[in-house]
Amino acid sequence: MNEVDKLVSSLTTTLVGAAAQGSNLWSSVLLIVLFVAIFYFFIMRPNRKQQDQRKEMMSGLHVGDRVVTIGGMHGVIDSLDSANKTVTIDADGIYLVFDLQAIHHVETPKSTSTAKVTDAATSSVSASTSEATSATSEATSSVAQSADSVASQATEKDSE
Questions:
Q1: How many CA atoms are closer than 13 Å to the CA of 21, on its beta-carbon side?
Q2: Residue 77 contacts by C-beta under 8 Å, 6 or more apart in sequence?
Q3: Beta bridge partners of 37
Q4: CATH code reported for the domain at 61-106
Q5: Distance of alpha carbon 89 from alpha carbon 102, whole angstroms
Q6: Closest by CA position to 65, among listed 56, 76, 54, 49
Q7: pLDDT tens digits, one per residue of 23-73
Q8: Which coarse location class applies to the principal site listed for this UniProt protein (predicted)?
Q9: SS (H, E, C) the chain
Q10: What pLDDT sits at residue 148?
Q11: Domain limits of the chain?
């Protein structure tokens, strides 16, 4: 049970208890106002913020933006038709028309700092791999030399 459910449960219990005990009207009204304020701040306000963010994203759509639809299809916006509220998406050469509301989000390109970190990690792994490969080849040649020397010693003993 999350905190909002616990708070609603305790407020309801308090409200019912206050009414049953014949408490004064002002405490009951105060509890109802408190309940409405909590409802507004935990449910209505976050929902409104989310709607405003979505409207901002939809108004910021441009031709060439990489988007993902609500169905999970990735593509690039080819054209926008504000009169019909549709968008044409190029998904690897296949052009599909969707309602604007079908756009889930706009993909942002990877930042250059992330790419630099990835490149540095890749080069570090490549260097470690090449060092490990050279160490392995040295160990292999060392084992081969040891095997050759053991074989030559065995051949010398057999010839004696």
A1: 10
A2: 61, 62, 63, 64, 65, 67, 87, 88, 89, 90
A3: none
A4: 2.30.30
A5: 11
A6: 76
A7: 678 888 888 999 999 988 888 888 899 999 999 998 889 999 999 999 999
A8: membrane
A9: CCHHHHHHHHHHHHHHHHHHCCCCHHHHHHHHHHHHHHHHHHHHHHHHHHHHHHHHHHHCCCCCCEEEECCCCEEEEEEEECCCCEEEEEECCEEEEEEHHHEEEECCCCCHHHHHHHHHHHHHHHHHHHHHHHHHHHHHHHHHHHHHHHHHHHHHHHHC
A10: 67
A11: 3-57, 61-106, 111-160
Residue at token pair 């992330």: 114
- What the block records as the tokens of 33 is 């106002």
Q: What is the DSSP letter of 109?
A: P
The gap between the terminal CA atoms of the chain, to the nearest Å, is 88
